[in-house]
Protein backbone atom coordinates (compact mmCIF):
# COMPACT_ATOMS: atom_id res chain seq x y z
CA UNK A 1 0.00 0.00 0.00
CA UNK A 2 1.39 3.36 -1.06
CA UNK A 3 1.86 5.84 1.79
CA UNK A 4 1.93 9.55 1.04
CA UNK A 5 5.19 10.99 2.33
CA UNK A 6 5.50 14.40 3.90
CA UNK A 7 7.61 15.63 1.00
CA UNK A 8 4.99 14.55 -1.54
CA UNK A 9 2.29 16.14 0.58
CA UNK A 10 4.12 19.47 0.73
CA UNK A 11 5.03 19.47 -2.98
CA UNK A 12 1.45 18.73 -4.08
CA UNK A 13 -0.01 21.23 -1.65
CA UNK A 14 2.35 23.98 -2.78
CA UNK A 15 1.62 23.18 -6.43
CA UNK A 16 -2.14 23.32 -5.88
CA UNK A 17 -1.90 26.54 -3.89
CA UNK A 18 0.46 28.13 -6.43
CA UNK A 19 -1.71 27.21 -9.40
CA UNK A 20 -4.79 28.62 -7.70
CA UNK A 21 -2.88 31.77 -6.81
CA UNK A 22 -1.79 32.24 -10.43
CA UNK A 23 -5.40 32.08 -11.55
CA UNK A 24 -6.32 34.46 -8.75
CA UNK A 25 -3.69 37.01 -9.75
CA UNK A 26 -5.36 37.53 -13.11
CA UNK A 27 -8.77 37.77 -11.43
CA UNK A 28 -7.45 40.25 -8.86
CA UNK A 29 -5.92 42.33 -11.63
CA UNK A 30 -9.32 42.49 -13.33
CA UNK A 31 -10.91 43.50 -10.00
CA UNK A 32 -13.32 40.58 -10.01
CA UNK A 33 -15.33 39.36 -7.02
CA UNK A 34 -13.19 36.25 -6.54
CA UNK A 35 -9.55 37.34 -6.63
CA UNK A 36 -6.17 36.08 -5.45
CA UNK A 37 -7.08 34.73 -2.02
CA UNK A 38 -10.40 33.18 -3.04
CA UNK A 39 -9.00 31.19 -5.95
CA UNK A 40 -5.93 30.19 -3.93
CA UNK A 41 -8.13 28.97 -1.06
CA UNK A 42 -10.44 27.04 -3.40
CA UNK A 43 -7.48 25.28 -5.03
CA UNK A 44 -5.85 24.64 -1.64
CA UNK A 45 -9.07 23.24 -0.18
CA UNK A 46 -9.58 20.90 -3.11
CA UNK A 47 -5.95 19.80 -2.82
CA UNK A 48 -6.22 19.12 0.91
CA UNK A 49 -9.39 17.07 0.60
CA UNK A 50 -7.89 14.80 -2.03
CA UNK A 51 -4.56 14.64 -0.15
CA UNK A 52 -6.39 13.45 2.93
CA UNK A 53 -7.79 10.48 1.04
CA UNK A 54 -4.29 9.77 -0.28
CA UNK A 55 -2.82 10.03 3.22
CA UNK A 56 -5.21 7.49 4.74
CA UNK A 57 -4.29 5.01 2.01
CA UNK A 58 -7.78 4.42 0.59
CA UNK A 59 -7.11 3.85 -3.12
CA UNK A 60 -10.73 4.31 -4.12
CA UNK A 61 -11.29 7.39 -1.96
CA UNK A 62 -9.49 10.09 -4.04
CA UNK A 63 -11.90 9.77 -6.95
CA UNK A 64 -14.88 9.79 -4.62
CA UNK A 65 -13.56 12.81 -2.72
CA UNK A 66 -12.92 14.63 -5.99
CA UNK A 67 -16.59 14.20 -6.93
CA UNK A 68 -17.58 15.68 -3.57
CA UNK A 69 -15.28 18.62 -4.22
CA UNK A 70 -17.07 19.30 -7.50
CA UNK A 71 -20.43 19.32 -5.72
CA UNK A 72 -19.15 21.61 -2.99
CA UNK A 73 -17.71 24.08 -5.48
CA UNK A 74 -21.12 24.16 -7.16
CA UNK A 75 -22.65 25.61 -3.99
CA UNK A 76 -19.77 28.05 -3.60
CA UNK A 77 -20.05 29.19 -7.21
CA UNK A 78 -23.81 29.67 -6.86
CA UNK A 79 -23.14 32.25 -4.16
CA UNK A 80 -21.28 34.57 -6.54
CA UNK A 81 -23.93 34.51 -9.28
CA UNK A 82 -26.09 37.62 -9.06
CA UNK A 83 -29.17 38.59 -11.03
CA UNK A 84 -29.61 42.26 -11.87
CA UNK A 85 -32.84 42.84 -13.78
CA UNK A 86 -32.61 40.94 -17.06
CA UNK A 87 -28.85 40.35 -16.78
CA UNK A 88 -26.87 37.81 -14.75
CA UNK A 89 -23.46 38.52 -13.25
CA UNK A 90 -20.86 36.20 -11.76
CA UNK A 91 -21.07 33.25 -14.15
CA UNK A 92 -17.46 33.75 -15.24
CA UNK A 93 -16.32 34.00 -11.61
CA UNK A 94 -18.18 30.81 -10.67
CA UNK A 95 -16.63 28.96 -13.61
CA UNK A 96 -13.16 30.18 -12.60
CA UNK A 97 -13.62 28.87 -9.06
CA UNK A 98 -14.66 25.53 -10.52
CA UNK A 99 -11.49 25.44 -12.62
CA UNK A 100 -9.35 26.35 -9.60
CA UNK A 101 -10.79 23.38 -7.72
CA UNK A 102 -10.06 21.13 -10.69
CA UNK A 103 -6.44 22.32 -10.76
CA UNK A 104 -6.17 21.55 -7.04
CA UNK A 105 -7.50 18.02 -7.59
CA UNK A 106 -4.91 17.44 -10.32
CA UNK A 107 -2.12 18.67 -8.08
CA UNK A 108 -3.25 16.52 -5.15
CA UNK A 109 -3.39 13.41 -7.30
CA UNK A 110 0.26 13.88 -8.26
CA UNK A 111 -0.35 15.08 -11.82
CA UNK A 112 1.74 18.20 -11.30
CA UNK A 113 2.50 18.90 -15.00
CA UNK A 114 -1.20 18.52 -15.79
CA UNK A 115 -2.09 20.93 -12.99
CA UNK A 116 0.32 23.51 -14.40
CA UNK A 117 -1.07 23.02 -17.92
CA UNK A 118 -4.61 23.39 -16.61
CA UNK A 119 -3.65 26.63 -14.86
CA UNK A 120 -2.14 28.03 -18.04
CA UNK A 121 -5.27 27.02 -19.91
CA UNK A 122 -7.55 28.89 -17.49
CA UNK A 123 -5.37 32.01 -17.58
CA UNK A 124 -5.21 31.78 -21.37
CA UNK A 125 -9.00 31.72 -21.59
CA UNK A 126 -9.23 34.94 -19.61
CA UNK A 127 -6.41 36.75 -21.40
CA UNK A 128 -6.94 35.62 -24.98
CA UNK A 129 -10.63 34.89 -25.35
CA UNK A 130 -11.75 38.14 -23.72
CA UNK A 131 -10.64 40.37 -26.66
CA UNK A 132 -11.81 37.69 -29.09
CA UNK A 133 -15.28 37.80 -27.53
CA UNK A 134 -15.37 41.58 -27.81
CA UNK A 135 -14.45 41.40 -31.48
CA UNK A 136 -17.29 38.95 -32.10
CA UNK A 137 -19.73 41.27 -30.29
CA UNK A 138 -18.73 44.13 -32.63
CA UNK A 139 -19.55 42.13 -35.78
CA UNK A 140 -22.89 43.44 -37.14
CA UNK A 141 -25.61 40.84 -37.20
CA UNK A 142 -27.67 40.67 -40.38
CA UNK A 143 -30.43 38.15 -39.86
CA UNK A 144 -33.13 38.42 -42.56
CA UNK A 145 -35.56 36.49 -40.37
CA UNK A 146 -35.48 39.11 -37.59
CA UNK A 147 -34.97 42.25 -39.67
CA UNK A 148 -37.78 44.71 -40.53
CA UNK A 149 -40.18 43.77 -43.31
CA UNK A 150 -42.51 45.90 -45.39
CA UNK A 151 -46.26 45.72 -45.59
CA UNK A 152 -48.51 47.52 -48.04
CA UNK A 153 -52.05 48.58 -47.22
CA UNK A 154 -54.32 48.87 -50.29
CA UNK A 155 -57.46 50.97 -49.99
CA UNK A 156 -60.07 52.00 -52.57
CA UNK A 157 -62.45 54.79 -51.63
CA UNK A 158 -64.81 57.28 -53.24
CA UNK A 159 -62.95 60.27 -54.61
CA UNK A 160 -65.10 62.74 -52.70
CA UNK A 161 -64.02 61.06 -49.44
CA UNK A 162 -60.32 60.85 -50.36
CA UNK A 163 -59.09 63.57 -48.00
CA UNK A 164 -61.09 62.22 -45.08
CA UNK A 165 -60.10 58.58 -45.69
CA UNK A 166 -56.44 59.50 -46.16
CA UNK A 167 -56.40 61.25 -42.78
CA UNK A 168 -58.14 58.29 -41.13
CA UNK A 169 -55.63 55.88 -42.69
CA UNK A 170 -52.64 57.77 -41.31
CA UNK A 171 -54.33 58.13 -37.94
CA UNK A 172 -55.15 54.39 -37.78
CA UNK A 173 -51.58 53.42 -38.71
CA UNK A 174 -50.22 55.60 -35.91
CA UNK A 175 -52.75 54.15 -33.46
CA UNK A 176 -51.47 50.58 -34.04
CA UNK A 177 -47.82 51.67 -33.79
CA UNK A 178 -46.97 51.68 -37.52
CA UNK A 179 -45.35 54.59 -39.32
CA UNK A 180 -45.86 54.82 -43.10
CA UNK A 181 -42.70 55.15 -45.17
CA UNK A 182 -44.58 55.89 -48.40
CA UNK A 183 -48.11 56.90 -49.36
CA UNK A 184 -49.40 56.94 -52.92
CA UNK A 185 -52.76 57.95 -54.38
CA UNK A 186 -54.04 56.96 -57.83
CA UNK A 187 -57.30 58.41 -59.14
CA UNK A 188 -59.30 56.23 -61.51
CA UNK A 189 -61.83 57.36 -64.11
CA UNK A 190 -64.58 55.66 -62.11
CA UNK A 191 -64.66 58.43 -59.49
CA UNK A 192 -62.60 56.32 -57.06
CA UNK A 193 -59.15 56.74 -55.53
CA UNK A 194 -56.65 53.99 -54.77
CA UNK A 195 -54.44 54.61 -51.73
CA UNK A 196 -51.32 52.57 -51.03
CA UNK A 197 -49.49 52.99 -47.73
CA UNK A 198 -46.13 51.22 -47.22
CA UNK A 199 -45.11 50.61 -43.60
CA UNK A 200 -42.01 49.05 -42.03
CA UNK A 201 -42.89 46.29 -39.56
CA UNK A 202 -41.00 43.94 -37.27
CA UNK A 203 -42.22 40.64 -35.91
CA UNK A 204 -45.82 39.65 -36.71
CA UNK A 205 -47.73 42.64 -38.13
CA UNK A 206 -51.03 40.78 -38.55
CA UNK A 207 -52.65 41.94 -35.32
CA UNK A 208 -52.02 45.65 -35.86
CA UNK A 209 -52.97 45.62 -39.52
CA UNK A 210 -56.13 43.62 -38.89
CA UNK A 211 -57.16 46.22 -36.32
CA UNK A 212 -56.61 48.88 -38.97
CA UNK A 213 -58.74 46.97 -41.50
CA UNK A 214 -61.51 46.51 -38.95
CA UNK A 215 -61.47 50.22 -38.14
CA UNK A 216 -61.47 51.62 -41.70
CA UNK A 217 -63.83 49.04 -43.20
CA UNK A 218 -66.63 50.67 -41.21
CA UNK A 219 -66.28 53.92 -43.16
CA UNK A 220 -69.05 54.26 -45.78
CA UNK A 221 -66.72 55.66 -48.43
CA UNK A 222 -64.33 52.66 -48.39
CA UNK A 223 -64.93 50.17 -51.22
CA UNK A 224 -61.98 47.82 -50.80
CA UNK A 225 -59.32 47.39 -48.12
CA UNK A 226 -56.59 44.77 -47.74
CA UNK A 227 -52.90 44.44 -46.94
CA UNK A 228 -49.98 42.13 -47.76
CA UNK A 229 -46.32 41.67 -46.84
CA UNK A 230 -43.59 42.47 -49.32
CA UNK A 231 -40.14 40.93 -49.64
CA UNK A 232 -38.67 43.45 -52.02
CA UNK A 233 -37.24 46.80 -51.04
CA UNK A 234 -39.26 50.01 -51.08
CA UNK A 235 -37.69 51.22 -54.34
CA UNK A 236 -38.34 47.91 -56.10
CA UNK A 237 -41.92 47.85 -54.81
CA UNK A 238 -42.57 51.39 -56.03
CA UNK A 239 -41.20 50.56 -59.48
CA UNK A 240 -43.36 47.42 -59.68
CA UNK A 241 -46.51 49.42 -58.94
CA UNK A 242 -45.65 52.31 -61.32
From TrEMBL:
It is found in: Cell membrane. Residues 13-133 form the MgtC/SapB/SrpB/YhiD N-terminal domain. Its main location: membrane. Residues 153-227 form the MgtC-like C-terminal domain. Gene3D superfamilies: 3.30.70.260. It holds the Pfam family MgtC_SapB_C. The chain crosses the membrane at residues 6-24, 36-53, 65-82, 112-129. It is a multi-pass membrane protein. Keywords: Cell membrane, Membrane, Transmembrane, Transmembrane helix. Belongs to the MgtC/SapB family. This is MgtC/SapB family protein. It comes from Streptantibioticus ferralitis.
Amino acid sequence: MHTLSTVDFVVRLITGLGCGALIGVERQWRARMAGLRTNALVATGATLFVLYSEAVGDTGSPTRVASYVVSGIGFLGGGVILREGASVRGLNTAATLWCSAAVGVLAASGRLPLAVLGTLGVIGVHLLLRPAGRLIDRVPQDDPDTGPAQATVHLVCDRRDETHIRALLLQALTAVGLTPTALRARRDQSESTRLQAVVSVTGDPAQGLEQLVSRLSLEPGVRDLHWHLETESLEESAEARA
